[in-house]
Amino acid sequence: MKFSETMLQGVFLVEPERKQDERGFFSKIFCVREFEEYGLNPKINNCCISFNKKRGTLRGMHYQADPSAEDKLVSCLTGKIFDVAVDIRPESPSYRRWFGVELSAESHRAFYIPNGFAHGFITLTDDALVHYHISNYFDPNSERGLRWDDPAIGIRWPIEPSIISKRDLGHPLL
């Protein structure tokens, strides 16, 4: 695997290295030892999927507060999404900054988002299936969110959302 740190400290792109032959390819997409070498949390307590029927579906921006803060490794198994992490750590030099990346079934790339970041995505195709490795158990009492269109953050979404849940529309500004 190839690990590339983004402009947000602790947020990484993880790209598989393919071993290809006439059958197709084989790739490692997760390895505890390699994650630890980069200082990333390899603990996984949950694996979840999100199926999104329509292009323009926006989910986010979500996070869990302490004591249930979580690290995520996100990939797109079918279709294509634009995935975003926002630094919500007030003491961080990159507080309120965001980084976005396209994830797709073709790229097989994953996005590592540590705790202290809000996460969200918009689907760029119909029938997008998103996979999450999550380090902590879901705790409804720690569930939080912030507005996807917060002007203080200024995320530049590549397309206008057409589907957003009532819950996500009701998140506060950071």
Describe this structure in words.
- It is a single chain.
- The chain is mainly β.
- It has a single domain (44-169), classed as Jelly Rolls (Sandwich), CATH 2.60.120.
- It has helices at 32-37, 166-169; strands at 2-5, 12-15, 19-21, 24-26, 46-52, 57-64, 72-78, 80-87, 98-104, 110-113, 117-123, 128-134, 143-145, 163-164.
- Strands 1-2-10-7-12-5 form a six-stranded antiparallel beta sheet, with no helix packed on it. Strands 6, 8, 9, 11, 13 and 14 form a six-stranded mixed beta sheet that branches. It has a two-stranded antiparallel sheet with strand order 3-4.
- A hairpin with a 6-residue loop joins strand 1 and strand 2.
- The longest helix has 6 residues, at 32-37.
- 30% of the residues are buried.
Topology record:
Blueprint: E1 2-5, E2 12-15, E3 19-21, E4 24-26, H1 32-37, E5 46-52, E6 57-64, E7 72-78, E8 80-87, E9 98-104, E10 110-113, E11 117-123, E12 128-134, E13 143-145, E14 163-164, H2 166-169
Parallel strand pairs: 6-14
Antiparallel strand pairs: 1-2, 2-10, 3-4, 5-12, 6-11, 6-13, 7-10, 7-12, 8-9, 8-11
List keywords for this structure.
six-stranded antiparallel sheet, globular, 174 residues, six-stranded mixed sheet, mainly beta, Jelly Rolls
Number of helices: 2
How many E strands?
14
The CATH class is identified as Mainly Beta
- Based on the coordinates given, report the CATH architecture: Sandwich
Distance, first to last CA: 34 Å
Order of helices and strands: EEEEHEEEEEEEEEEH
